[in-house]
Structures are given as C-alpha cells and as structure tokens.
Amino acid sequence: MSITAGVANKILNTKAVTYLTKPNAPAAAATIALISNLTKDAVNCYYYVAQSLNNERIPEEKRKFVAGLDLANGILNVLVQTIVGVTLPVLTNKVFEKNIVPKFFSKDAISKMYTKLKPNVPLAGFEDKMLKNKAFAKIGLSVIATLVGTQIIAKRIIVPLIATPLASYFKDKFKNNKKCECSDYDGDKISFENNIKNDNHSKIENIPKCFEAFMR
Amino acid sequence: MHVSVSKIENSQLLQNMEKNKLSFKGGYKVSRDLTRKIIAESNPGVRFLMNLGKNNGEILNSIVTAVGTAFVAPIFIAFNPFAKEDKETKMYSAWRQPISAVIALATQIGINLKFNHWLDKLASAGKLDRANLVAKPQVSYLKKIIKTQKVDIPKQDLLAEIEYMQDEAFWKKVNQERVSRKNIPISTEDLIDNNALNEAKAQIKKNYEKQISSMSKKEANKFINSKTMELAKSNVDEAMKIEAANKWHIIRLSKSGKSVKEVVANLQAKVDKLKKRNGSSKAIARFEYMIEKLNNLGDFKYVKKLGNNFQEVLQSVKIKKMVKAGINNAEAVLSSYKKWGGIIISLVTLPFSCGLLNWAYPRLMEIIMPNACKNKMERKLAKSGGKF
Fold this sequence. Notes:
Number of helices of chain A: 8
Oligomer: heterodimer
Number of strands of chain A: 2
Distance between the termini of chain B: 90 Å
Shape of chain B: elongated
Largest interface: A-B, 80 and 90 residues
Shape of chain A: elongated
Radius of gyration of chain B: 30 Å
Number of strands of chain B: 0
Structural class of chain B: mainly alpha
Strand content of chain B: under 5%
Radius of gyration of chain A: 26 Å
Number of domains of chain A: 1
Strand order of the largest sheet of chain A: 1-2
Strand content of chain A: under 5%
C-alpha cells in the first residue's frame, strides 16, 4: 500500500487538486454533479463523432454530415444541461427557503421537534444541530434537482423534443437527395430510396445510422 | 496568555447563558446519538434530502442518469409523436436504453465503489497527507476488518462494533495528543473546521445584511470572506474558554467528594429556591445548564483527568476540538477526492461500457425481439444470395 499511497499523495498534493478539494472547496456539490455529467456527455459526443468519421460503412461524402449531426446533438445536450444546471440551484434555493424551511426548520418546527425528542442538550444547542441538518437538506435538494433536471428532464425530454424535429428536417433533406446511402442500425448498407418505396423491408433498417443519435 | 478563571467566569459570555448554550451540543456520544434521533424522527422527504446532502457523488450521479436512461428515454423513443418510424423500430431502439443503463450501472458503480473503499482504506490507515482519518476510521474499512474476523456477524452487532472502534480510535488520538502537546500552544486556526467557517459566514451575512445588500456580488463575496475567518477564530476562541470554564467548574464541584447525582440534587435545590423567590434568571439558567451538563457526564472520573487548573483544562478542551476539527476537515477532503476521482473513473470506463453495449445490444435483442431480428437476417440472406 505504501507505493500506491505515495503515488496517490503525489497526485493529491498537487496545487490543482489541493485547490479543488480544500475543506471549503469552491465548487458546491450540485456544481460537481453538473461538471461530472457535462464532461461525460461531452466525451460521449466525441466518441460518437469520432466513430461516425471513421465508419467506413458510411459513404465518405456523407461522413462529415453524419458526424455533424452527432456533434449537433452533443452540443445541444451540453448546452441545455448547462442552462438547466445553472438555473436550477437558484430556483431550488428559493423553493427550499419558501416551502421547506417554514415547515421543518423554522423556530416553531425546531422547538416542536425538541419537545418530541426531549434530548439531553439545551434548546440552543439543539437548534444549532438542526441548522446543520438544514444545510445538508439544502445541499441534498440542489443536488437531486440538478441531477433530475439535467439527466432526466434536459437530456431525456427537452433535447429529444428539440432534436426530433431537427432530425426530421435533415431526413427530408436526405430523401430529396434520392441518392442517400448510409449504414443502417448495425452498419449494413441500405438504399434509402428503396426503403421508402418498399415497406416490406425490415422496419429496423428504416433508421439509418446518421439518425440514431437522435433516437438515444 | 494567562486567562484568570474569575475573569472568564464573570465575563459577559458566562453571564449571558443563552449564548453560552450555543457552544454546547452535548458530548461526543450525545451529539452523535442526537443526530441519529433527529434523522429517524424527521419527515421522510427531509430525511431523504439530508442523506443526499451528506452522501452525494459519482455513484448518485450514475444512479440518476441510469434511471433517466432506463425509464424515461425508452418512453420518449417508443411514444414520441414526432418520430414517424413504425412501432417495431421504435421498440427496437427503445430497448437500447435500459440495456445501456444496466451496463453503465454495472461498470461505473462497481468500480467507483472499489475506488471509494480504496480511498477509505488509505485515509483510515493515515496514508493520505490531507485526509488522515486515523482518528475516525471509515465505515467500509472497519466493516472489512470486522467481517474477516466474524463472518456471520448480525447487522446490528456490526454497527455497534463499528461505532465502538470509531470511539476507541477518537479517544486514543485525543489522549495521545493530550500527552504530546501538553505544553505546546495550539493555534486557533487548527480548531476551525468547515462547519465553523460556514457558521461564521452565515453570521456575517446576517450581521451586515444592509451593508452587503448595497454591494455588488463580487464586492459582497470579498467582504464576507475577509470577515469570515476573523469571526470564526473569535467564535471558537470564545467557545473554548466557555467550555473550559464549565469543565473546570465541574472539576471543582467534584472535589467536594460527592457523586454526580448528589451534586445535581444540590444544584436542583438551589434552582428551586431561586425560582420560589423569583431570583436572578441568569443564575437559574446557569445552574440549569450545569445540571444538564452533569446529567450527560454521568461520572466525574474522566473530567477530573482534564487538568489541575483552568489553563490545563483549556489546553485539554482545545486538543479535543483540534482532533474533531481535523476529522471534519479530513472527511471533507476525502469526500472531494471521491467526487472528483469518480468523474475521472467514469470517463475512463466510458469507452469500455460503450464497447460492451455495442457487443451486448444486438445479441440481447435477438433474444428480446427475435422477430424484428429475424426480418433483418432474412433480408441480409436475400441480399447476399444466401451467403454471409
């Protein structure tokens, strides 16, 4: 353990890590959660774009366009999540102060709890403890709101809502080209034109790879 | 600097009992048990939020993301009114989401848990310079130790044993420090933890509310930060003196040779007398405060060891606070290590989980939606003239 601990300490004692992880660190829990998810989505976007650009089953002239769609979807994802993630904590703090504090952390609520628990500490000491719990509850609300807001509402509801009509727009553009040929779901080459004419074909193949990003 | 007992005892601080009480949240055990009681008695929603506030990080991120991927994304894909694809296609696409969520959870949670436990182990063994938690070995570390010795230990006993080991480690550290630092002055900065800073910050915001409201956000932050440390220092200094004065008072009471119960009975009699003749409310409050402290103490045995004069008691009180503040700061740093480290780990595992998804998805779909896959296979065969 001493070698790994030595290496770990070398990394953890660097200036940047020390700054990020000091006990009163500048980034709040909700911000760290947002940074985590944004980074992951950005890296995911990079993988999709790189995959599309290097996918030999997509005709060369279409690759940039397909990758562009992946990139647009990724940017949309990061952008919407940033907006939601930055505005939500402000909103949740207001909700917390307005709806949760009066009910559970007001002077009255605390003294009610004090009477119920009958602890061996004075009321003032008990109030102090409740204030700490209030701070944790506030952090908890902003973290869960940020996560639900960005990972469920933004990423899974708002982005697909914006992206689907956008995808349809590009799809129509493709149809008009009549020449469009790109890989299907598993990378099988299909003719778009044929698929439109002949509906007996496998329905799966109606979705070319380039639109898969919008279905995620 | 020498502080005379009488000066402390007659100070405005001790006269003002309401303020004195602020520093007393019960001893180490009383405080911990009280936190548990509060959590157990809280509204389930608030309890959930308090737990999230204490335990958030990469694992929580992964769980919420997986919930969105597994339960919300498929609904939007399968029933998206804007998408013109047929039902089978939509269902085929929708199935990708829960599969991807399960793979993400399996890969990310497992590795993040291992990483967190590894950090816990290093911190508990005192191997991390900035997160030395020898005085409070972490639960996952202790669990492993206990379970290797007692494989089938019931959950309740396990928790009790963890608590016992944490208490033992805390007092061992406090006692070690009390011996080694007996005559070494303790810097006030060493007594300040994140909680103290947050309390001071809130106090500054409240005290200078009007002044701060007229400032720009940047100016206000600068103003608050400049005053916070100063106030935190004076708060903790004040609290230590009060704590020491009270402890010293108790030690002197113990010198009468009476038991705690007898001393409490005497004080209670005094309180009753004062109340009867409408005596000083400050005096009543003070005696009641001592009664509460004595009731929590139970025994004079340990308090007597704190010192033979006020200065020694003050040093002992400060050392205990220093160990506690050290634990709080180290835990905050450890928690940050876990959060930031978790992000890096998730990023490193992303290509693996993506690869695993690409491999598993078509294979699983052949089991889940064989017809949809059969159509596709038939077409492939027709295209290739029966050959793959």
